[in-house]
Specification:
mainly beta; 10 strands
C-alpha cells in the first residue's frame, strides 16, 4: 500500500472515493470519470474534526485498512474484530445500546496534518470508518456517530474496488 500524496489529489488516474456530506452520497471515481453513486448516512452532529465530537471529519483521507473480507453480509464487528455474530432483529432487540458496525470496515486515515491527522483531530485514532448498518437505518440523512454508514450490498461493492491506499475526499 502506498500512501497518497496531497499534491497529487484528486488523482487523474486510478480509483478514488468522494463522500458528499451535503448530498449524503458516496461517489466512485476512476480518475476524472464519475462511475457510480450510493446513498450514505454521516454524522448526526454534522461535520467536525475533533475527537469525541460525534461529527464526520472533512478533507482528504485514504483507506488505511480493509477489514472483513470473506465474511458473510451482516457480520457484526466490535473493536474491528468479528464477534462471530450475524445481525438479526432478535440480536438487535437483545442489545439495543449497540452502534452496529456490520459486514465490512474501511478504516480511514487523514492526510492533512493538523486538520484530520495528528493530535485531537486524527481521523484514524477517532476510528472513522465506512461500514455497514442495519437495514432499518435510513440512508440519505445524517444518523451516525461520525462514521459513514452504508447498506451492506453497497458497502460490498465499494469494498471490492477500494483497497488500502485508496484516496477518499469528505466534503460538505
Amino acid at each position: 500500500m502506498q500512501t497518497p500524496r496531497l499534491d497529487a489529489l484528486p488523482p487523474s488516474e486510478g480509483v478514488w472515493l468522494e463522500v458528499d456530506i451535503g448530498r449524503q452520497c458516496l461517489v466512485h471515481w476512476q480518475g476524472e470519470q464519475r462511475q457510480e453513486e450510493w446513498s450514505v448516512s454521516t454524522g448526526l452532529a454534522g461535520t467536525g474534526q475533533r475527537e469525541d465530537s460525534g461529527r464526520t471529519p472533512l478533507g482528504w483521507h485514504y483507506v488505511r485498512a480493509a477489514i472483513g473480507d470473506g465474511l458473510p453480509p451482516g457480520s457484526v464487528f466490535r473493536g474491528r474484530r468479528h464477534t462471530g455474530e450475524t445481525f438479526s432483529q432478535s440480536l438487535a432487540e437483545a442489545h439495543p445500546e449497540r452502534d452496529w458496525i456490520l459486514t465490512r470496515i474501511l478504516w480511514l486515515c487523514g492526510l492533512e496534518r493538523g486538520f484530520n491527522r495528528g493530535g485531537a483531530v486524527d481521523s484514524q485514532r477517532r476510528y472513522i470508518y465506512l461500514h455497514g448498518t442495519p437495514p432499518d437505518q435510513p440512508m440519505g440523512v445524517p444518523r451516525s456517530h461520525g462514521c459513514i454508514r452504508m447498506r451492506d450490498a453497497d458497502l460490498l461493492a465499494v469494498f471490492a474496488l477500494a483497497p488500502p491506499g485508496t484516496p477518499v475526499w469528505l466534503h460538505e
